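Researcher: Let's continue the batch. This sequence belongs to Nucleoside diphosphate kinase regulator, and it's 154 residues. Same format as the previous ones, please.
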Amino acid sequence: MTGGPEPVDADARKELEKELAELRAERDSVAATLRDGGGDQTGDRADQADELMRADEADRLNGRIREIEGRLEEASVAAPPAAGTVGVGSSVTVRFEDGTESTVRIAELADALDPGLVTGDSPLGKALLGRGAGDTVTYETPEGRATATVVSVG
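Model: Same format as before. Here are the structure tokens for Nucleoside diphosphate kinase regulator:
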């Protein structure tokens, strides 16, 4: 990203808060099935394996919860990008190596129904963040390294 905290638009914040609530509920459900660790360990190996799987799932959920909480906390202190600088929420026109131009919107969360959306953590999104008109960026694609030039930032 730009090296500093990135803002989150209102729609993305709602989605992150919704996911956070769902993850917390799921974690509480999984945690309720775990033994306290010091209790009777008389179950067979299948019971012990199931317990380990639930503990791993609880760890995974806790990790994602921490990630979202950190992102929301970071966003709460972030200032919007400077005028003319690409940031989350910016609309950017880029010219690719083959001469085609495309306008994309930098967003926090992916949306399969919006082909003009690029997430800030995608290769192109990362390359564009913090850049301005006239800057050329390099990023990785499945076909190899590619470059694009920022035409304008809206």
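Researcher: Any comment?
Model: DSSP finds three helices and five strands in the chain.
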